[in-house]
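Exam review. A common question shows you a sequence with its structure tokens and asks you to describe the fold in words. Practice with the pair below. Do the first one on your own.
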Amino acid sequence: FRFGPRGAATATALVSFLAVWNTARESGPFVRDSITHSLLASQLFIATAALTALVLAAVTAERRRAESVVRDLADEQAALRRVATLVASEADAHAVFARVTEEAGRLLGTPSATIVRYEGESARIVGAWAEGDTPLLPVDSDISPDPGTVVGRVYETGKPQRVDSYSDTPGPLAE
């Protein structure tokens, strides 16, 4: 059941093959007076084993998913608690933005994260974090919301955006 539904199905197929093989050779616990009764006994065993194994495997897989969700929620709550503690200690805005950026980057599993504040026609970096090294865009630097970049798309639409590659996007921000 550790291997989930696929492992349960494979194990059931193997056990079923062995049960049918032994019954056909007139050995094992499913051999009865007639071939019909032997076949019925082995089929009942196979159906019961398959149903039980697949249900238990599905429950096990669902439990693993639920544990993963609970772990993710616990990580998010811990991050929120750290940010709230920093805010409650009356830290300056730079420290709060730095912590929020780091926590968001770590929770999302990204190598870097940046918080941008839009000011008229430009955008200002208010929080930057990079795993292991210094961020590419320093805090308090002004950037242009170039079209095609995430910053430009958010500026244009006001909605969350995603860009997977900047290889065909012109402008200094994409570079």
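Now try the second one, then compare your answer with the model answer below.
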Amino acid sequence: KGVEHISDIVRIQQEMARGDASLAVTFNLLSTIKDTAMMQEDLNNKYRIQLSVDVHPDLSDVVLPQNPFVQMIDNFIKNGREAIIERQQSDSTAEGKIDISVTPGMHDQLILRVRDSGIGVDPRKLKEIFKHGVTTKEQGSGFGLHSASTFAQSIGGTIEMKSEGKNKGATMVVKLPIEVSNQS
């Protein structure tokens, strides 16, 4: 699974580098996020992690490259779970929660927030967390967040991570256009 995960990320990055990233398609935001979360439901249940999804009713269908979007959400859930597991190793009473929310932003944008109750990130590492090969995990590759950043930027979006430090969780904040056009 780990090799497949990295392979998917590398493929997406190569497509973006060649300029033929996945075509934008119309898809339902709530359904897509819930379907993506469901793929990891067994592992989340195993580690007693509650996952919630809240999409503002004004944001139904979007026109975005769906595959990289799904890969980004999938990676955020996986990272959140791993951060929660790490925190629970030193504090077995720590609550495991991942909250995904999407709200309207300015200028026809959506704001995606993925908040976890995990180990958190040293605030000094927040600036470099999206660089290729940078990871906070012992077994991490540094591909996932770099790929998410590459995707967001490729369609005119932004991405940042917020964390108040150790055992305070982390929040991914991604701003994306609601609709992108396919370039020929």
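Model answer, second protein: The first strand starts at residue 24 and ends at 28. The mean pLDDT is 85. Full marks require stating both points clearly.
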